[in-house]
Amino acid sequence: MESKSTILVLALLVLYLIGSVTAGSLPIQSTNHSSEDTTIATNVDEHKTQGDILVRSNGIRETFGVAGKGIKVGVIANGAQSINISQKTGELSAVHVLSEGTGDEGTAMLEIIHDIAPDAELYFYAYGSSSDTFKTAVTALVNAGCNVICDDLYFFRQPFLQDGDVADYIRSALKANPRLIYVTVAGNFAPLHYQGPWKAGIPYGKNQTLQDFGGGACAVNITLLPDERVIATLQWDDPWGHSFTDYDLILTDPRTGAVLATSNFTQNGTTDPFEHLVYDPPGPNSEKVSLQIVRNGQTATPNILELFIRGVDAKGVDNAFMKDPTDSIFGHAAVEDVVTVGSVEPVPPFTISQDSSHGPVTIRYPVSTKRWKPDICAPTNVNVSGAGNFPNPFPGTSAAAPHVAGVIAQLWSAFPDVSRDELKQVIYQSADDLGAPGWDEIYGYGLLNAERSYRLLFDKNKPAYNTSDAILKS
Q1: pLDDT per position as a tens digit, 266-325
Q2: d(CA 290, CA 124)
């Protein structure tokens, strides 16, 4: 009878041979759902995320049985209403649903984690539509004993250029729970983003001046298609809660100059550096609009302005200055100890997704600094069941982040004595470098590679293989 050490050597040889195959040569599952009849239940494997192969999590699971046993993973998203449908078709096992919410982004994220780490114990809590209820969700999952928490949320009412209460809350949770790893998305805000210094342009009204975005351009010109809407959020680098420079957002008809929508909060030293404008076109036809930033009063005080536009196809925006993906990560995704995940396409050469936000992150208070985000990337546009009519394939960084959460569950189950910081550093160190050598502001450290992470952890920790439960223990 072969000894355990012989079995382990053979298993590692298999893993080495698997790892010697490039991701580009691995078969990628794909399904054409253009004529899908949603009343017919399909085979579970048809909806298994392609990312399981691309991040090599299948290799360590199939070779060693490393599947997340003993690890609790919590997900925070909009909802998991159709989780029972996913479970009936075999896409999910048991999930502790602490708050169901509405929609099924959570269901899709849980399916990805389950594909990668099927033995992990899963939890879900809906974020509840506000930053305060989001913090409640974090607390509930921490109290449930979750080792990994994964969310896909951004709050545009949180500061862009400093830490807000959500970022502080996540940082405190991590400090109080050293056996917790927090995973979040880099965001899908690369296409329509601007950051630049205040520059006085043309006068707009009495004691008002338009921002010059560059070269004398004082407006963002947008062609709205039917069913599109303008959602514009502006912030600047005054201290949160103590803004003393007064800006407004104004949306006009470029032909007539008529004002279509405004955001004109007053900044008087006791309010936030924040303006938020929403415009829903009244008719069914395409419409041209112009967005301007207006400064009220004195124009001497310098500021860094940051503007995001959502709800609009980037092709409908004429201005190149509004299409700068650099520094489009903010909020709790900018917290140093959070694992911030960008998304890549699920086919070689694994280029960054068009919408995946880039770093670095500019922080202005309390100390002016840069933070090196994102940390790592994983695939997007991957297969999920589509329960609850959720989009399949699953797009955005919301699909990428649960791949990382699932792999962390695998690795921590195999090496339970490894510290949080060591596990994160190994994941970063072992990633497949995709951009400039080393860390870069687009891909972070590169594409997640579970097999290489496993080998590095094995070499460092030299555990003995326990064939009874397929878990490596120190």
Answers
A1: 999 999 999 999 999 998 899 999 999 999 999 999 999 999 999 999 999 999 999 999
A2: 41
Q: Which residues contact residue 356 at a Cβ distance below 8 angstroms, ignoring those fewer than 6 apart?
A: 186, 187, 188, 190, 342, 343, 344, 374, 377, 380, 397, 400
CA distance 238 to 327: 18
Task: Give the three-class secondary structure for 138.
Answer: helix
Q: How far apart are CA 376 and CA 432, in angstroms?
A: 10
Residue 26 neighbours by CB under 8 Å, 6+ apart: 53, 54
d(CA 316, CA 333): 28
At residue 176, the 3 state secondary structure works out as helix
Q: Which residues, at least 6 apart from 256, have a Cβ–Cβ distance to it below 8 Å? A: none
CA-to-CA distance for 13 and 144, rounded, in angstroms? 38
Name the band, by pLDDT with cuts 50, 70 and 90, for residue 465: very low
The closest alpha carbon to 232, from 131, 164, 156, belongs to 156
Strands (DSSP E) contained in 86-241 are 95-99, 121-126, 148-151, 181-185, 193-197, 200-205, 208-211, 220-224, 230-236
CA nearest neighbour of 293 among 208, 191, 223: 208
**Rounded distance between C-alpha atoms, residue 409 and residue 67, angstroms:** 8
The residues, any chain, with a CB within 8 Å of residue 20's CB and separated by 6 or more, are none
| Alpha-carbon span 448 to 54, nearest angstrom | 8
Q: Give the Å distances, CA to CA, from 262 to 169, 204, 238, 275, 468.
A: 32, 14, 21, 9, 65
Distance, in Å, from the CA atom of 112 to the CA atom of 91, rounded to the nearest integer, reads: 9
Integer Cα distance of 181 and 211 in angstroms = 41
